Amino acid sequence: MMIAPEIILAIVFQLTQLLLVVLAAPLLSGWVNQCQAWLQNRSGAGVLQPYRVLHKLFRKDAVLAHNASWLFRITPYIVFGCMWLAAAIIPIIAVDLPFSRAADVIALVGVFALARMFIALAAMDIGTAFGSLGARREMLVSFLAEPALLMVLFTASMISHSTQLPRIVESLAHHQFVLYPSLAFAALAFVIVLLAENARIPVDNPNTHLELTMIHEAMILEYSARHLALIEWASSLKLFAYVSIGIALFLPHGIAEVGNWAALPLALALLLLKLILAGAGLAVLEVVSAKMRIFRAPEFLGTAFLLAVLGLLIHFLLGA
Amino acid sequence: MNATSLSALEITNGVILFWILLGAVGLWWRDTRSLTRILFPLGALAALLLAAAGFAALGSEAQTLVLPLGLPELPFHLRLDALSTFFLILLGVASFGVSLYASGYFRHMEGKTLGLLCLEYHLFLASMALVLLADDAYLFMVAWEMMALSSYFLVTTDHAIPDIRRAGFLYLLIAHVGAIAILLAFGVMQGGNGIGAYTFDAMRAAPLTPFWASAAFLLALFGFGAKAGVLPTHVWLPEAHPAAPSPVSALMSGVMLKTAIYGILRVTFDLLPEQVWWWGVLALGLGLVTAVFGVMFAAVQGDMKRLLAYSSIENIGLLLVGIGLTLIFHVYGKAELAALALAATLYHSLNHACFKSLLFVGTGSILHATGERNMGRLGGLIHHMPWASVLMLVGVLAIAGLPPLNGFVSEWLLLQAFLLSPGLPNSYIDMLVPVAAAVIALAAALAAYVMVKFYGVIFLGQRREPALARAHDAGSMERAGMVWLALACVALGLFPVFVLGQIDLVALSLLGSQLGNASADWMFLAPVDTGRASYSPMYFLLAVAGVMGLSVLLVRRLYHGRLRRGAAWDCGFPAQTARMQDTAEGFGQPIRRIFEPFFRIEREVPGAFDTHPKYHGHSDDKLWFLLYLPLKDLTEKLSGWASLLQHGRIHLYLAYTFATLVVLLVFV
Predict the structure, then answer these.
(1) A298 Cα to chain B: minimum distance (Å)
(2) Structural domain includes residue B606
């Protein structure tokens, strides 16, 4: 049986992105942390710190609580797998990713939801007060963030008449800097969702273990060693995936088109620039805002949800 | 089909007859031990046969049969077309699992009134099948009432408990109010043409003005809505479902609610000659309100079966949204989209029948193992009930709408229908659509919240009561039933192209339009156009499993797999007990707080100096107090006035008769 060379190339491409995102994701987290450190007049641990942390964690012996069940043990792998997959199907360098056909934007939201469900369940598995508190808060944040994300993605799908990510990116990249009013609202909503879903200030703080405020950290409190490493890595991948979605929806220009291999180096360089800028922007956002009380978070996310719906409505009204 | 083989309709009739027979045999069977071991599995096999016959008949022509029973001028008409076949398959698939389960579950009732239960149970199954087959209003109402009564007696199995009697009465009351509305709807549709016009065929042919068609639609929507639990007639559902034995709850929630959906579809698209656009808007609006209401209340429940009952209300809301969308698209001539919305509705009906039955029978096993329905007294069951915990996890993931299971497929289809909608001629509806899509997304996300609570509080964590250490796993027959239902969830999730191909036949016969799969590849679900949207659960599963396996392998290879067990981190406070975990109420607290205006909350908070501090919180349905209690008071007042005439003395009634006669003689 002959397989067309384009297909082989596309598969090679898919595998390359798979490898690239998993290796590069901690770098993005490191970069955001480093920027934050600079903004706070600290010297910081360097952009490679996340890799050192991962290496350290992987070497340690895992410690499980006495009543941890199988669910607790498989969750890190499921979460890691889901996030890896999510980051790998978002077209950021080139648009022809074969696997993007198997999972469109709705399925992408589904992947995030699947990982979230498992991590929340695992948090409740040990039966400490912190775990279930974290699970409850995580689900609280996400029940508003998830529909908001879906609405943002719907706005983009409506504009490009497709729910497939490559199609969306292709069609958005072709419009030469046309400003869509609906996308502007969507972008605003997306930033809020990104902050909330990635446990960033002002909704959560990834660097604290303060009982009253933590969400994500409360859920993973019982994890150690390789399990913790996988979850941390998955968090980096999730941040990478969200930033990629942002780039793909709102700044897709310069992406390499189908079969256009010559554009690849330029696309890579542009992507690097976009990621650096996005990471720095995220750090600035976090440094200038303060953590809010947990019950302010639903209002904050409610705003995102309404903005996203507004964006969709504007698309229906103006057709743009 | 050749002459020697049986037609699907004949097989279906045979199955119905067999069920009735099983019930009758059960009544006279003295040995209750073999009753559960023989009769229930036989009933399950009949259900499987029903599903198989339906499956074989799905693509073929409608079959009809007239039985010499019933009224003199209106014999029983039976008809098996694509729509009823689809729902018969649903009935067969779900009740096969539930009957298998029941054969294990009802063993604890041996020596009690099991024969009666067997009769009611199989009559219930038979009447549901008959509702789906009925082709005239008379048979339909007979079957419908048989279904209501048999399920009423099943609900009140434990009638010694006053609360269960009350729940049963409420159910019976609302079922009958609904039945009156359905009867009136049939009356409107037959258009006053004598008793022969009560066949569905005559109704299809009867010309109706849009006014009377709307009247019929509204009556049918109310009547069937009362059975399905659509707002505001939902109040019986969270009372009756927990009261019934778990297999019965599973059948009621998984299958009986779908007969109401079948009724709405049958009346709206088949019996009524034309549809009006605002019907769709009404159904859509009602569906959205019902969905959000259901999931909101599910989030604050402490009783596991009540939680599932509210979740059923949510799912019925989603189905109604699908019907509303189908109506809108159908009226505006968007044939392909109407088929898509209908496919989403039917797919979700099937999904809900599988995962809700699975979850309800699962609660039955928990009830057996622990004797506890209150989630606040459960916990940690994953260590004691390995089978139940794995199978229930499948159900929980499916109902939360997560890929690659079945709940996600129908949600995906419904959202695709929304996404493809722009360009409707009515700009108001055009604007309603994105808002509706947002509400659906919100309800789906809240459903995940509810399910984390459901599974987490029951199965995970530490035992909240010491007695839970003695909890045992589900028995072998119980397991078999649950495995079947869980497999159905997985299969419906992994092979959507195949299922959709079958559903398409229903859409073709009902709407005259077809969806078709744009992709030639059976792995890819791609309605309308491959470029617009596609989803492949198989590849999805393979990819997630692949990267998971790869990460396990790499971690083991590059590092190690060493593991130790230790105490959980206690935060420097060693006196922690299992009671310090989050409870069901605690988990629902944020929802209660955010949606506070929608609940009627009673709270009893201890003071600072209480020696025995007690906290008590309870959230109630406002509608009960704003609608039902005033209605009850009104009824009581009216009947009080009517009772002025009634004294129960013979001579007074004779005087009434005499007075009536005199008045009539004077006037006539």
Answers:
(1) 8
(2) yes
